[in-house]
Write a structure and sequence with these properties.
By secondary structure, this protein is of the alpha+beta class. The protein has 4 helices and 9 strands; from the N terminus they run βββααβββαβαββ. The strands form 2 sheets. It has a 7-stranded mixed beta sheet, sandwiched between helices. The two termini are about 20 Å apart.
């Protein structure tokens, strides 16, 4: 299902980097779709490469175990996991809404390929997430992040997320944030 909002009119670069304007595609050529377990390898590759880029370690046995069974970890429990693919079907981004407890979800695995960042797609993802979460029955969204992910933290703050002290946090994270969600629109 293609997201045709005006915010998608910005460019999303292909491999070769944002400086190579000849390879840039429009975000309208990118689409969101539910991830399946067939996407697991591509999603792990995306997530682990972004983590490595920022000096953070992947943890496939614990923190990233959800990526070994995307369908079972998310949709089967009332959440969702989507990938963003370019016109050629390549995974360029991902995010998941993982149910934590009644009415509360965690925003997980929100990552974009390096050459697709800084072009407005993060804002598009956040707007989509903030529509989906209440529609799935969530009233609060939490997330964990690392201080080194400055751009992501700025994005979360721009959408109203505030810090809080959780009972537990994954080893690679040092900041937790939350946002109380409005009721779902009819």
């Amino acid at each position: 299902m293609k997201d045709d909002s005006k915010e998608n009119a910005r460019a999303c670069g292909q491999p070769g980097g944002p400086e190579d304007i000849n390879t840039a595609i429009s975000v309208t050529d990118c689409r969101f779709r539910p991830a399946t377990n067939a996407d697991a390898e591509a999603v792990r590759s995306l997530v682990f490469s972004v983590l490595s880029e920022y000096g953070l370690g992947a943890d496939p046995a614990c923190t990233d175990r959800d990526l070994s069974d995307i369908e079972g970890s998310y949709a089967a429990h009332g959440g969702c996991f989507e990938v963003i693919v370019d016109a050629g079907g390549q995974v360029i981004g991902s995010y998941g809404l993982y149910p934590l407890r009644e009415g509360v979800c965690e925003l997980r695995k929100m990552y974009l390929r390096r050459d697709c960042r800084g072009r407005g797609l993060g804002n598009t993802i956040m707007r989509r997430v903030l529509q989906q979460a209440p529609a799935l029955g969530f009233r609060r969204m939490e997330l964990e992040t690392a201080a080194v992910l400055k751009e992501a933290i700025a994005l979360y703050q721009a959408f109203g997320f505030r810090p809080f002290e959780p009972d537990h946090m994954s080893a690679r994270c040092n900041l937790a944030m939350f946002l109380d969600l409005p009721p779902a629109k009819p």
